[in-house]
Amino acid sequence: MIVIPFSASLGATLNKGNLKSKPLN
Question: Which domain of life is it from (predicted)?
Answer without folding.
Answer: Eukaryota
